[in-house]
Amino acid sequence: AENSRLSREVQTSQEITTREVSNIKSMYEHELSDARKLLDDTARERAKLEIDTKRLWDDNEDLKA
Q1: Is 0.85 surpassed by the pTM of this model?
Q2: Where do the IF rod domain residues begin and end (predicted)?
Q3: What is d(CA 3, CA 13) in angstroms, rounded to the nearest whole number?
């Protein structure tokens, strides 16, 4: 009887731990996905700004000439 009760407790504890680890993993993967998207968006915006800056610099040089 005691062994059976302890076995159920261990199994319940393992199930809870597995569920918690799974939930944390899911949250982490979601956060990581969001961070990657933000990084990609930022890199894309930076590239656009660099192109715009170069164009404006060239326009400025042309106007000075």
Answers
A1: no
A2: 1-65
A3: 15
Query: Distance between CA 32 and CA 39 in Å, rounded?
Result: 10
The residue assigned the tokens 């731990």 is 17
Determine the pLDDT at residue 58. Answer: 96
- Rounded CA-CA distance 20/10 in Å is 15
28 closest CA partner among 17, 38, 20, 40: 20
DSSP state for residue 47 in the 8-state scheme = H
Token pair 């809870």: residue = 16
Give mean pLDDT, residues 18-46. Answer: 99
CA distance 57 to 63: 10
